[in-house]
Amino acid sequence: MQLFGTSGIRRVADEELIQLALKVGLVVGGVYPSIVVGCDTRTSSPVMKHALLSGLLSAGSRCCDVGVVPLPTLAYAAREFDAGAMITASHNPPEYNGIKLVNPDGSAFDSRQRQQIEEAVLADSFTAASWEEIKSGGAHNGAVEEHIAGILQSFPTPLKLKVVVDGCCGAASLVTPELLRRLDCEVVALNCYPSGFFPHNIEPTEANLGDLMRAVKGFGADLGLAHDGDADRMMAVDDKGRFIAGDRLLVLFAREVGAKGVVTTVDASMSIDEAGFQVARTRVGDTYVSEELKGGGDFGGEPSGSWVFPNFSLCPDGIYAAARITAIAGHDKLSRLVDDIPQYPILRGSIGSQGVVMSDLEKRLSAMKPLSVSVIDGTRLDFGDGWLLIRASGTEPKIRVTAEAKSEARVRQLYDSALGAIKDCMEEQR
């Protein structure tokens, strides 16, 4: 049984998950003497948080509860503690919940830390502290203000733009609008009340942000912003009401911060390579981007909306990113900047993986004569005019396929070749 995915523990909120939160608290509290704890707006978050706090306190850890906050706010507060723990299921539906653990520098627990916690939880290897070793818990109500104040130091000039913010009733519903108002922006708030009952799918994709796109056009705004449930993600809409693809945001942010080295994932567009940066690629997941940035790099992110500014924090910070994209819009219209960045046709999909042996599939794909092959996460084949990525899903019996090329015909050829190779492997096993 595996507890941790690439972004912490995440599953449907039920009695089993509450019991798991208690155990995680007992284990984590036995390793880290002081921990700051926060949660998102989900209806199950209070009970999950108190179960985790009970475990942490029982193990003898000193705890501080910062209440309902975005993950990057929790990570910013963790600078003064040995670790931070966030109750959230990020962009999953409202019936889910989970636990994210972060280090004082904002980075998520790495594979070694996760393994240590997971093995102890599964083995029930934890002990409660004796009565005289139990510390008192307390509340800290200044985390949001501290986070906003820290961000404002990077933006000394008023921005004075009109911005539409879709908080989707998540943890950033009150934070991002307040930050932008402090930057002298006029804010139009959509779904900016932290109820935990999300008015639309919480993942900030183009398909889920129709209201935001219409509002930007209707109000004549300079841009629109959207977060997921814990605001480690941020996606944007330009002044024409068009959704900005994550690959283009990656280039915009890297240019804005004057980056030389950029860290991104294997599924990011080749447009970032063509923009002239020194690009390092990692496995899919912002955890791996942050880990790589510890060794160097000026900026990192992945197209799903996680942006890491290492000079501020190693946590993907959607709140900081909201201020940064607003500042970019203050230099020039986002629509003009976005149109200057190439966008190539991309196809993404998945197919059942029953009977597929990945090594056999890789041999078939090698017949396509790629210029180079990467096996950082699945198999990525580069062809000069495009690339193909085949990855086994970590959550479903499927193989995920992504293809990008400089023409519609070429991307379709690459994508169909991958599907054909997978189907041939399946046929051979029957």
Portion of residues in helices?
25-40%
Give me the CATH fold name of the largest domain: Alpha-D-Glucose-1,6-Bisphosphate, Chain A, domain 3
Taken as a percent bin, the fraction of beta residues is 15-25%
Major sheet: size, sense and barrel closure?
A: 6 strands, mixed
Count of domains: 3
CATH-derived architecture of the largest domain: 3-Layer(aba) Sandwich
CATH class of the largest domain: Alpha Beta
CATH superfamily of the largest domain: Alpha-D-Glucose-1,6-Bisphosphate, subunit A, domain 3
Number of strands: 19
- For the CA atoms, what is the radius of gyration? 22 Å
Major β-sheet strand ordering: 1-5-4-2-3-6
Report on the structure:
By secondary structure, the protein is an alpha/beta fold. The chain has helices at 15-31, 45-58, 71-77, 111-122, 143-152, 175-182, 210-219, 246-256, 271-274, 286-293, 318-331, 334-339, 358-366, 408-428; strands at 9-12, 34-39, 62-68, 83-87, 96-102, 138-139, 162-166, 186-190, 223-227, 234-237, 261-265, 278-282, 299-302, 306-308, 346-352, 372-374, 379-382, 386-392, 398-405. A six-stranded mixed β-sheet has the order 1-5-4-2-3-6, with helices on both faces. It has a five-stranded antiparallel β-sheet with strand order 15-19-18-17-16, covered by helices on one side. A four-stranded mixed β-sheet has the order 8-7-9-10, with helices on both faces. Strand 7, helix 6 and strand 8 form a beta-alpha-beta unit. It is globular, with a radius of gyration of 22 Å.
Give the tags.
3 domains, 35% helix, Alpha-D-Glucose-1,6-Bisphosphate, Chain A, domain 3, five-stranded antiparallel beta sheet, TATA-Binding Protein, six-stranded mixed beta sheet, 430 residues, alpha/beta
